[in-house]
Design a protein that fits this description.
The protein is 57% helix and 2% strand. With 549 residues, the protein is an all-alpha fold. The radius of gyration is 26 Å and the shape is globular.
Length: 549
C-alpha cells in the first residue's frame, strides 16, 4: 500500500505531510514560502522584459501571468487532483533556464516581436512534458544514494551563488552593488534569523525564523533607504489575465527545439528536487509522485503559453525551507499557491512582497539554500563512500555540476542545445552521476556497491549475496529489520503519527539495482557453489531421525 493509499485509509495515522495546521500557524508558514520564492519567481520575467524593452503595462502582464500560473501549479502540486500533482509541499515557478533562449530568440526582433514565437514554443514544450511524464518516472531506479545524494547536494550548492548576488544588492549594474552597507544588511538578516531559530528552538516561532528575519531585516533597511516604494505606488489595484496578450502564438521549429531542450532540463531539475523533498519530508519519492508532478508542470507550462508566462520548474529553495522549518504540511504550500494567485490578480499586493530588498533575501537564502546541501550530505552518508568507485562518482559529479556555477561561460562556444544542457549544473551533474554509477557499479564482474561480505558458519568463506536474492544452501534469512524512521535532516525523532514508507514506495533505492544479475556471471556461480555449508555429523548420543513416522 502506497503512502497515498494509506493517507486515505480510515483510522490511519496522519503523516506530517497531510497534517492540517491551525490558522495561527498556517498563515505565517505560507507567507514564509511566498517570501522565499518571490524574488526567484519574478526575476525571469523582469530580466526578459527589461532586455526586450517592454513597457510598464507589458511588464505587468508578464509578472501577473508568472504569479498566477505559479500559484495554480503550486495548488495542483499540493492537492494532486485527478493524478495531476505530487501531493507534497512542492512549489512551482518560472525556470531561470528560459532567460537565455528567450533573449536569443528575440535577438532579431524589436521589443516584444519575438514573444509570440516564444509562447508558441512554450505551448509545445508543455505538451511534451505532460506526454513524457509517465516514462520519465521510470528513471528513479537509476538514483541510488550515491547518485541522489550527489544531486541533492549539488542542488543546494548551485543555489548559493544566487544568495551571494542578492546579498550584494541583486542588480549588478547598481552603484551600491557589493557595498559594505548591503553586505552588513545581509549579515544582520542572517544573524537575526539564527538568533530567532536558537532562542525559539522547538517552538513555532523558531520554525518561521526565516520569515521573521526577513521582516526585521526589511524594517532595518527602511531608514537606510534600501526599500523602494515606487512599485507600490505604480501597481494597479486589480488586473485580469488576457489570453494571448502579446499576439497569436507562432510555431517556429528552431525556437520549439530550444524550448523542448529547456523543458527536458527543467524536468531533470524537478526530478532532483523531488528526491530532495522526499528526503526532507519523510515521504519517499514514488514513481506516481514524479509522474503527477511532471504532469502538473506540463499543464502549468501550457497555461503559461496562453497567459504570457514561461516554462515552469520545481523551486528548490522552498525544499530548503521545508528542511529548515520542519513544517512538512502540504496544505501550508497550498495556501502559498493561493496567495500567489491573489498576488497575480491584485498586483498592488504583489508589490508589498517586492518591498523586501535583495540583501535581506541574500541573508535568508544562505540558510535555506544551505539546508538543501545538508540534506544531500545526509543522503550521501547512506552510500559506501569509503570505496573508490562511489567516492569517484561523487567527486566527478560535483566537479561537472559546479563548473557552470564558477565559470558560466565555460560552454559558450558549444552548439546551443549542448550549451543549454551542460550549462545547467544540476542537469549536467545528474547525467554524470547516473552514467558513472552504471558504468562503475553495474557493468563487469566487480562492484564496490555490494553489501558487506557475510561469513557463513562452517564454510570459512565470505560471500556477497545479491540484494533480495537468497543464496542456495544457506540458512533461512533473519527477519527483516524494522523500517527506518522518517528522514529528518536535523536528526530529530520522527513524530509518532508518521506512517512508515510502504514497500511500494521507491524512495532512495539500494546501492545495487537489478540492471543486471551478478548470479549470471560464472565467477558468481562458482562462489555460490563454494558457499554451501558443510554437512556436520550428528553429535554422539543423538539418534538420527527415522523416515516416515
Amino acid at each position: 500500500m502506497s503512502p497515498r493509499d494509506l493517507a486515505r485509509t480510515p483510522g490511519a495515522p496522519t503523516h506530517p505531510v497531510d497534517e492540517i495546521l491551525p490558522v495561527r500557524r498556517l498563515v505565517p508558514a505560507a507567507l514564509q514560502h511566498v517570501a522565499g520564492m518571490y524574488a526567484g519567481l519574478t526575476a525571469p520575467p523582469l530580466i526578459i522584459g527589461g532586455a526586450l524593452g517592454l513597457t510598464s503595462a507589458q511588464l505587468s502582464v508578464l509578472l501577473a501571468a508568472a504569479l498566477l500560473v505559479s500559484g495554480l501549479a503550486t495548488i495542483a502540486q499540493t492537492l494532486g487532483p485527478f493524478g495531476i500533482g505530487a501531493r507534497l509541499p512542492l512549489t512551482n515557478g518560472v525556470s531561470f533556464a528560459v532567460v537565455a533562449p528567450v533573449l536569443a530568440a528575440s535577438a532579431t526582433e524589436p521589443r516584444a516581436g519575438a514573444l509570440p514565437e516564444v509562447f508558441g514554443a512554450t505551448l509545445i514544450a508543455g505538451a511534451v512534458c505532460f506526454a513524457l511524464a509517465p516514462a520519465f518516472c521510470r528513471l528513479v531506479r537509476f538514483f541510488p544514494p550515491v547518485v541522489s545524494g550527489s544531486v541533492i547536494t549539488l542542488v543546494g550548492l548551485s543555489l548559493l551563488p544566487a544568495a551571494s548576488t542578492w546579498a550584494r544588492g541583486g542588480n549588478t549594474e547598481a552603484a551600491d552593488y557589493g557595498s559594505p552597507s548591503n553586505l552588513a544588511l545581509s549579515a544582520a538578516t542572517l544573524a537575526i534569523t539564527l538568533a530567532i531559530h536558537r532562542a525559539f528552538s522547538g517552538r513555532f516561532l523558531g520554525r518561521i525564523a526565516v520569515l521573521l528575519g526577513m521582516l526585521v531585516g526589511t524594517l532595518i533597511a527602511v531608514p537606510l533607504g534600501k526599500v523602494d516604494l515606487d512599485p507600490l505606488a505604480d501597481a494597479p489595484l486589480f488586473a485580469l489575465p488576457e489570453p494571448f496578450a502579446f499576439g497569436t502564438p507562432q510555431f517556429v521549429p528552431t525556437v520549439i527545439a530550444t524550448a523542448v531542450v529547456v523543458m527536458l532540463v527543467s524536468m531533470a531539475e524537478s526530478t532532483a528536487s523531488l528526491f530532495a523533498l522526499g528526503a526532507v519530508s519523510g515521504r519517499p519519492t514514488q514513481g506516481d509522485t514524479i509522474t503527477g508532478s511532471l504532469r502538473a508542470q506540463g499543464l502549468a507550462t501550457i497555461l503559461g503559453g496562453v497567459l504570457g508566462s514561461f516554462t515552469t520548474t520545481v523551486f528548490a529553495q522552498n525544499v530548503g525551507l521545508v528542511a529548515l522549518s520542519r513544517i512538512r504540511s502540504r496544505y501550508v504550500v497550498t495556501l502559498c499557491g493561493a496567495i500567489l494567485v491573489l498576488l497575480g490578480l491584485v498586483p498592488v499586493l504583489g508589490s508589498l512582497v517586492a518591498l523586501v530588498p535583495p540583501p535581506v533575501l541574500g541573508g535568508a537564502g544562505v540558510v535555506f539554500f544551505g539546508s538543501v546541501a545538508v540534506a544531500g550530505i545526509r543522503t550521501l552518508a547512506k552510500a559506501a563512500l569509503g570505496t573508490g568507485h562511489n567516492s569517484l562518482i561523487v567527486s566527478v559529479t560535483l566537479a561537472f555540476g559546479l563548473v557552470p556555477v564558477v565559470a558560466p561561460d565555460f560552454y559558450e562556444r558549444l552548439p546551443a542545445p549542448a550549451a543549454t544542457v551542460l550549462g545547467s549544473g544540476i542537469t549536467a551533474g545528474c547525467l554524470v552521476a547516473v552514467l558513472l554509477n552504471y558504468l562503475l557499479n553495474h557493468l563487469g564482474h566487480g562492484t564496490e556497491a555490494d553489501p558487506d561480505p557475510i561469513d557463513f558458519p562452517g564454510t570459512g568463506s565470505a560471500v556477497r549475496p545479491p540484494t533480495g536474492r537468497p543464496v542456495p544452501g544457506n540458512d533461512p534469512a533473519p527477519p527483516a529489520p524494522a523500517p527506518a524512521p522518517a528522514y529528518d535532516p536535523f536528526g530529530h525523532a520522527p513524530p509518532a503519527s508518521a506512517d512508515t514508507p510502504s514497500s511500494e514506495a521507491i524512495g532512495f533505492p539500494g546501492p545495487l539495482h537489478p540492471l543486471h544479475s551478478r548470479l549470471n556471471h560464472p565467477r558468481a556461480r562458482s562462489i555460490r557453489q563454494d558457499a554451501r555449508p558443510v554437512q556436520q555429523p550428528d553429535p554422539p548420543g543423538r539418534a538420527a531421525p527415522s523416515e516416515g513416522w
